[in-house]
Amino acid sequence: MVMERILEPEVMDSWEEAIEYDAMDFIEVNTAFASQSIAFGPTQAGLVLDAGTGTGRIPVLIGQMRPQWQIVAIDLSKNMLQIASRHIQQANLQQQICCQLLDAKHLPYADGVFDMVISNSLVHHLPEPLLFFQELNRVTKPNGGIFIRDLLRPDDQKIINALVESIGNEYDQHQKKLFRDSLHAALTIDEVNQLVAAVGLANVKVYQSSDRHWTVERGWTN
Predict the structure, then answer these.
(1) How much is the pLDDT for 12?
(2) In the CATH hierarchy, which fold is given to the domain comprising 15-218?
């Protein structure tokens, strides 16, 4: 029997939360995500949307690897974006990466404007992920790249306990609680497949990409 989804707050918007989140060591995960995103994106110039950018670590990594891309990094947290802007300035990428305070479920962009849409660890925050998948489908070009990754909700509490214990002593009890809450709020593979089918997202691959993640991907084509 599949565990019920337990929602967590959609926006981490206090300054303290933003600082704490940015201090957590995601460099290995972020670098892997950035590298894999590039593999599914346009080979030359392109306009890329990063939905739920948080503190902007991923678009900075991508911008350094793909200087020909323009990146729009959006988030609903003012404080997260304030820290993201600092990282972008420190990397001298202000001309390449634009931060916007926006809701990924209600985007102001025209249909089919982006060559690629990426998102890392946004979906588990959303009470209505269908709205995001509808917007994802709408604003991406029909031949555009897609790379979406998020946490996977385990089948039972025992697996959640094991995953939380596996993240190591470098995380304090509060950070472990955040991870536990996020696992409870995450989607299953079946739920992701249902969302993809519901919005008619074509030619995507949906799969479990680690013991705690699912991925939706589609390569950019000419």
Answers:
(1) 76
(2) Rossmann fold (3.40.50)
